[in-house]
Amino acid sequence: MTAPAAHHPAGPLAPPGGAGGLAEVFRRRYLLRLLLRKELQVRYQGSVVGLAWSYVKPLVRFFMYFFVMGILLGLNRFEDFALHIFAGMVVLHLFTETLGAGTKSIVRNKSLITKVQLPRETFPVSSLLVSAYHVVPQLIVLAVMALVYGWHFDPVGIGAGLLGLVLMGVLALTVALFFGALNVFYRDTQNFVDTISIFITWSVPMIYPLERIYAATERGALPDWGVQLYLCNPLAEAVLLFQRCWWTPAAEDSATAAREQMPSYLFERGFISLGVALVLLYLAQRRFTRLEGSFAERL
Amino acid sequence: MSPSIVVDGVTKEFSIRSTRTLKQRVVKRLRGEEVVHSFRAIEDVSFDVEDGESIALMGLNGSGKSTLLKLISGVMRPDQGRVLTRGRIAGLIGLGAGFHPQLSGRANVYLNGAILGMTEAEINAKFTYIIDFAEVGRFLDTEVGHYSSGMQARLGFAVAIHTDCDIFLIDETLAVGDRPFKRKCLKRINDLRREGRTIFYVSHNTNQVERLCKRALVLEQGKLGFDGPVHDAIRHLHYDEDEDPDAGEV
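ok -> structure tokens follow
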């Protein structure tokens, strides 16, 4: 088929495998696309309910929070409680799903990694994209729900929502890379990640509003710097930005809600968080590259 | 001529942890036993392969052949020294890597091709050749899980052998399939060689090695024990003394 002509490779001598890194994943995006398609196609094959399983779990959790936390424990005494929970869940779900799947992604694909040279970052990136794929229908449900609660268009809110989503995505990819690589060396990582996932659920204003943190400080249950510490958490920041997009514009007096329910300097904090997240992503990538050298023999 | 593979003072060390849990580790350490011991799979190996050369890598089991191949393909990184290559690397390694039993033969050809570094256009262009070569014909849209193991192997082989490359690595996989299929594979490898691609061939099979290569490397416990003409390499390994069990095989 190929003409039997003299064949001469171009280019300089270089270490095999190219530059690697996230840029290489982007360069080989056709591979990423096929791996992604396979993942989505294969995950629920042979299951009757299929893709719906991806929504059953969050839905059950939502009703649990709603009834137990909201109604039984009386956390629901603030406006649009259900919307507040759901908006938080959607954006946090992107993070926790990516964290869980990304941590396992390298070990799970060991048959490929030990045989073929390809950018290994492909697997954590693909975990993020699978999670993002599942966020889309959730966003639609959220939008419908928000409209029912009286949401109205607010350009500042939309901006906040986009920033929150991007921030969450960068954070998710960062932890997926870092813990994915670490899991090759210490399989404890999976359990560690499962454990912190429980903690993460309670560390952001989702089931309770930010108000409660301020109230706890005033009561003296938390020290004064407690609020600042809480707001330093970039996950809390991303969730707040998302609440600013979906929850406060649905309030009866949305301008007051946006002023009073959100921390001061919401956007400034958001951009600083994004900057920090990008630096962390860079560090995680560097760490990944260093650890990657011994993936093949440790898997 | 310029080299297409340069292996320069390469050492690869594996550390074997006899313990995985913290408890075991503490106990061992208290007893004064070694927790981690390392061994050198490859030790200070150097050689160049010229562009367009066909070279065989021989050695007993456990002599480090597969490790060296992984260092050249980039799956592993050397601890010391450096490995440099020119151009695109492919080969009969990781055959059928990423094959998914629940996907059709067609989908798996695309997936496996992409894993081996092919672009969409490249796979499209070679698709019919691949299918012809694999002889899967009407099972193209059947799930690969229903294929016989021979068919699966042939499909993996067909994709790998059609990957466009400058350096072609072969890890003693020519035992795939029946005799006509083997003959076809050898012919294709011969074509690749004649096209001027560099062939790096790992095998025990002296017949095939003699047929494909002029030069051979022999690894002995991770060290380069011999580098020279194939006939001398076979003598060096004493492979010529006994009856060759592969004799007569294609």
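The beta strands of chain B are 3-17, 36-50, 54-59, 80-85, 89-92, 167-171, 198-202, 215-220, 223-229.
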